């Protein structure tokens, strides 16, 4: 049943104005639960009918319906559960169950045109012709490029309307025009054009039939050659007066007369005397409404010349697109993922069509100066072809976010409402659980001043996919940029409270709140309280201690010295990893060296740092194993014994530096700084590693 509902969906496309054809309605917006959607569907589900049209008692649902319905309600993204439910309802022939299931299913998967057809047939067989028409109209609003659904709708009208009434004929023709306007530019729309032309022929409107084929010959379709042959046979089988509109017939006949006059002027056997052979007062023979055989033949030749030119132009357009069309293997919608080759084929096709439209736009700009309307029309046609191809692509690739983003990027220069409509379709129908495109939509609305709509989008996303940090932070940022700092602070506080069950997430939001309070609210005390409370809940989270240390060090180091060293001590006493503790110890030692007020603080920090380093080295050696080190040393000794010793150049004996070089008072200060710099580099040049910088620190500050 799934295959039946999604087969050949690619024969369904054309939208010159997507914002009009995809105007959202209740049936198009899957924002509610499946049960609620079924209750407000086409029928509401309150009145049940059997397949024969007889009313049945309310609540009399099939035996397994509730079980299958619960499966779809629990996991609405499971396509197989939906198809099982629909197949069961169809087998049972239960009208109310079918309506409820189909309404809910099509709310989530509106591109499955086969199920719209099944729904309409279900209503028609039950005798509800108006409901069948409503179902078709809902389906066509959801997927206006579906050639199959348009044909199904037209056949429904042809089978139910009284064609003896003039308004019925007018309505059918109106629906045909809507169909070709929406889907007629699809590469596979040939069946729709043929049906339109044959219907006009059945009505005896041969000139209308000619107009239909003339229009389709301007559209690159798969069966373009067939249309050409049919139109050629049509023109040669009937009189030009019968197959052409009055305007076209008059134009062709005038061309024929002009050619005859020109031919007569060129003939040498025509003389002025022959022109005066007609008796005085006698006029030219009156036109009896019939063309001579010669005139008919000449007019047909003129028609064939223009037809051949039109055919050659269309064939050139078809040839450009043929390879792209051949590479598309699944033009219909399905939840199964497309392979990489198919995605690449759509990307390449779109890129090429966009490039063609851009070239046409450049030509139109140059021709606008010269007043050439033809180039302007080509520009409009190129833009429409890009729109149609995007709509075709977004049937097969509706579940792929990158194609929606590509469509938005293309439409951005053409109008805000078009972009907004694409975002709405993507987020509310096809990608309700993809948070990134929702965030892009919210940013789009905020960028263009629609703050209320951006808030609504983020709130809706939070309800659909609750608990996403990106959504929370984007909402906070939206309120902050709007100047509502109190609202942003309240949102962060609420999020911190809600995340207490998840220590890691609680720490993340606490850090965000602390930064907000410190940087924007200028309240370091409140920020300190937030971090301290988070540390009590997550004492093993090094990021909390790090942010608390940064908060303390951002102030005056002379005033906050005690708090900074206290923060370092708290981190060293916390159940953190040895490497993390070494980092905090190094930060504390660096602070004591740079800003400490007493030498004792530096010495104590140094001793603590050395203790941590020794503990870390001992654990590392224990993990690596002492046996490996012994074997390595023995191998090195053996290798050195076999190596011929080389005479090394004499070196000065190492003399440890016990005191810093004396300052050069009264001398060249640059020399003094240079000497101090070399000494400092010798002592602290390896500060990046934990042992080298402080290996001889006790020479200056011996332990007390």
Automatic annotation (TrEMBL):
One of its GO terms (molecular function) is pre-mRNA 5'-splice site binding. Residues 271-286 have a biased composition (Acidic residues). One of its GO terms (biological process) is mRNA 5'-splice site recognition. It is found in: Nucleus. One of its GO terms (cellular component) is U2-type prespliceosome. The keyword Repeat applies. This is Pre-mRNA-processing factor 39 isoform X2. The gene is LOC113114077. Keywords: mRNA processing, mRNA splicing, Nucleus, Repeat.
């Amino acid at each position: 049943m799934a295959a039946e509902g999604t087969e050949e969906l690619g024969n369904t496309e054309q939208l010159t104005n997507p914002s009009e054809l995809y105007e959202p309605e209740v049936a198009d917006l899957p924002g509610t639960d499946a049960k609620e959607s079924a209750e407000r569907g086409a029928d509401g589900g309150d009145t049940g009918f059997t397949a024969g049209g007889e009313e049945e008692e309310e609540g009399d649902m099939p035996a397994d319906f509730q079980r299958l319905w619960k499966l779809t309600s629990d996991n609405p993204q499971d396509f197989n559960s939906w198809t099982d439910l629909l197949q069961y309802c169809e087998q049972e022939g239960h009208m109310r169950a079918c309506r409820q299931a189909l309404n809910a299913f099509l709310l989530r998967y509106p591109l499955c045109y086969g199920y719209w057809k099944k729904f309409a047939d279900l209503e028609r067989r039950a005798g509800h012709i108006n409901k069948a028409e409503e179902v078709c109209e809902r389906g066509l609003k959801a997927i206006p490029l579906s050639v199959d659904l348009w044909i199904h709708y037209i056949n429904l009208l042809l089978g139910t309307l009284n064609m003896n009434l003039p308004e019925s004929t007018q309505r059918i023709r109106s629906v045909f025009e809507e169909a070709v306007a929406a889907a007629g530019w699809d590469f596979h729309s040939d069946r729709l054009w043929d049906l339109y032309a044959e219907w006009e022929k059945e009505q005896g409107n041969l000139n209308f039939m000619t107009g239909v084929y003339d229009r389709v010959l301007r559209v690159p379709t798969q069966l373009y050659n067939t249309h050409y042959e049919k139109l050629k046979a049509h023109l040669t089988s009937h009189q030009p007066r019968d197959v052409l509109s009055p305007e076209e017939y008059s134009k062709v006949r005038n061309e024929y007369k002009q050619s005859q006059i020109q031919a007569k002027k060129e003939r040498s056997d025509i003389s002025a005397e022959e022109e005066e052979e007609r008796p005085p007062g006698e006029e030219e023979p009156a036109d009896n409404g019939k063309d001579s055989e010669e005139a008919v033949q000449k007019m047909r030749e003129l028609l064939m010349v223009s037809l051949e030119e039109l055919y050659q132009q269309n064939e050139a357009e078809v040839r450009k697109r043929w390879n792209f069309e051949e590479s598309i293997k699944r033009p219909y919608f399905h939840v199964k993922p497309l392979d990489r080759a198919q995605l690449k084929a759509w990307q390449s096709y779109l890129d090429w069509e966009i490039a063609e439209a851009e070239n046409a736009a450049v030509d139109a700009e140059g021709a606008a100066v010269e007043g050439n309307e033809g180039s302007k029309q080509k520009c409009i046609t190129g833009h429409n072809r890009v729109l149609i191809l995007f709509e075709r692509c977004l049937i097969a690739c509706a579940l792929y976010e990158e194609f929606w983003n590509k469509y938005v990027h293309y439409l951005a220069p053409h109008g805000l409402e078009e972009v907004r409509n694409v975002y709405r379709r993507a987020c509310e129908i096809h990608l309700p659980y993809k948070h990134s495109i929702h965030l892009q939509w919210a940013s789009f609305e905020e960028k263009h001043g629609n703050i209320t709509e951006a808030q609504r989008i983020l709130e809706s996303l939070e309800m659909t996919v609750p608990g996403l940090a990106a959504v929370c932070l984007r909402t906070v940022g939206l309120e902050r940029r709007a100047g509502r700092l109190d609202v942003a602070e309240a949102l962060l506080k609420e999020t911190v409270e809600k995340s207490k069950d998840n220590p890691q997430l609680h720490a993340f939001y606490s850090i965000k709140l602390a930064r907000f309070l410190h940087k924007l609210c200028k309240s370091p005390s409140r920020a300190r309280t937030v971090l301290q409370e988070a540390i009590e809940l997550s004492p093993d989270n090094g990021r909390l201690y790090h942010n608390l240390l940064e908060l303390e060090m951002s102030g005056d180091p002379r005033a906050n010295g005690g708090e900074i060293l206290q923060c370092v001590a708290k981190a060293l006493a916390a159940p953190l990893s040895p490497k993390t503790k070494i980092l905090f110890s190094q930060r504390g030692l660096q602070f004591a060296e740079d800003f400490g007020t007493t030498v004792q603080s530096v010495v104590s920090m140094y001793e603590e740092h050395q203790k941590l380093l020794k503990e870390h080295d001992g654990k590392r050696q224990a993990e690596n194993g002492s046996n490996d080190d012994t074997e390595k040393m023995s191998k090195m000794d053996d290798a050195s014994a076999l190596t011929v010793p080389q005479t090394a150049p004499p070196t000065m004996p190492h003399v440890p530096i016990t005191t810093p070089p004396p300052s050069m008072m009264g001398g060249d200060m640059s020399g003094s700084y240079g000497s101090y710099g070399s000494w400092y580099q010798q002592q602290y040049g390896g500060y990046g590693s934990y042992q080298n910088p402080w290996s001889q620190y006790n020479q200056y500050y011996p332990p007390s």
